[in-house]
Hints:
CATH architecture of the domain at 75-266: 3-Layer(aba) Sandwich
CATH class of the domain at 75-266: Alpha Beta
CATH topology of the domain at 75-266: Aspartate Aminotransferase, domain 2
Bound molecules: pyridoxal-5'-phosphate
Number of helices: 10
Number of strands: 9
Radius of gyration: 19 Å
Amino acid sequence: MIGAHELRGQLALAEDHIHLNNAGVGPLTRAGQEAMHRMARLQSEQAFATIEEIIDVYNGSRAAFGALVGAPAENVSMMQTCAAAISQVALGLDYECGQEIVFCDQEYPSNAYPWYEAARRHQLVPRLITSEADFDLDLEKVLSAIGNKTKVVALSWVQYQSGTCSDLKTIKSECDRVGAWLVVDAIQGLGVIPFPEDAVMPDAICGGTHKWLCGPLGHGFLIMDEEKRAQLSPLLHGAITYGTPEDLVEPGKAMRTDCGRFEPGNPLLWGGVAGAGAGRRGGTIGNLPT
Ligand SMILES: Cc1ncc(COP(=O)(O)O)c(C=O)c1O
């Protein structure tokens, strides 16, 4: 945890600029900028000869995202955006016709449309929880929407319009009771409030760097363990889905089961290294002073 003045020093915001909208787009930190410059320099000066170093830095940056929720680096897949991470889960799962998706009426569109699309493709039933007049989410309503037909509960940890927080621990234990997945959009919480230590790990956590992590626009991540990853079909396929760029084509080859399963091509370099660089503020990851 770092102080407000120290944090201000890590930002390149104009001295007379008052920024109050990290829920929209946060300011990229100096560390994030530097991480991008470093990668640009390496590729500019030596191109392919630096690829191992570039890939090492990139893979090293997974740890920063995982640490935000207490997950190991190997559980972090890099994605184009938070919406891409949510779509990978929503459209990559196996469903049975008539199963239900529980989500709520105040979600950001990127955490609603992928679920409507999954419902359309697989004849699922969207169970929309209605918010209270003050935008609170009634936990009892959430819990009572979860039943034997529920395949997924998809909720933001912190809602983008109201700041309402979901009680992940209680919701996850209800999901476990009926065998449903809990898929959490954590973009509005990571970097500003500590991920609840007592929260049982959701089945999938989706995030992005450009808000409270003060990283760049255009980067997301998906955090899942190996068992859950194996249950999702990748939406995008390429060399990395099946191995490395050095491998020749082997029709019928099994897909990777590690975090590269959802990373079809060359690295999402800028967002990965700069997002992680930005997140490593003052030697700690994430949480801003409260
Ligand atoms: C809850 C939530 N999810 C996702 C996003 C953004 O994700 P993307 O840029 O991938 O649509 C936002 C941004 O406002 C958000 O508030």
